[in-house]
Structures are given as C-alpha cells and as structure tokens.
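FAQ: What does the model actually see?

It sees only this:
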Amino acid sequence: MREPADTAAVAVAHGAFNAAGGLWPLLHLRSFEWVFGPKTDVWLQKTTGGLLLSAGAAQLAAAADPRGAAQARRIGLGSALTLLAVDLVYVPKGRIRPTYLLDAAMQAAWIAAWLRSGAGRAAAGGGPGGRARAAVAPKRRRPRR
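And it is asked to produce this:
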C-alpha cells in the first residue's frame, strides 16, 4: 500500500533537518558551540552529529521507497523523542544551555508532524496490525456431518 504524499514530505523534510543538524558540529564546531555552548567532550558532539547524519540519510533514502515511509517514521520518532528527552532533562539541570529549548520545540514539532501524517497507519496487509494479522493463518472450518 502506498503511503500518502504528506508522509513522504515529512520524511524528506525531517531527514534533511537531521542530516543538516548532524553535519553542523562535524563541519564547523566553533559556530555550533557559539549557539549551543562550549563542550568538554568534542568526541561526543561529533559522535552525535554522525548519528544524526546517519538517521537523516536513512530517512531520505526511505522516503524514496513507496513502502519506506513507515521506516522513516520510526527513525524520525525515535530520534525526535530521544533528543526531546535530552533537551527537557538537561536544560533544567543546567548541564546544557537554554538554547536547546529551541531544539526541544523543533523535536516536538517533528513528533506532531509524524503523528499527523499517515505513515505506518496502514501496515502491509492493510489497517492496524496488518502484518501481524496477515501472518496468522485463518482457522479452518470443519465440515458439518
């Protein structure tokens, strides 16, 4: 079943956002730290950047596949929920700058966009639980005597 066009658009937009966000600390750490604060563990910033770049690339690749929107949705929701949790836990603790609340707002917006899109609602086989239902063999009726 082909996913709605809005789902592919969300996959492309979120994938590009994640890829760009991942590239930023890899290509210009100084400007990244100017906005989000100096970091003591540069390796961690670069690792996080690489992971976001990978997630974004996977979302962009999945968007091109008619059945890939559900995969892009899982990647998008997983990354957005994780980053939102980090932002909301560590800003109040003073561990990261309040500018991360801007990122929290963006992550919440991505979550809302995925929840509004049709991605993953109709799994292969159609409807909720389509794959699980399709895997269950139908019961055979015994002939009446």
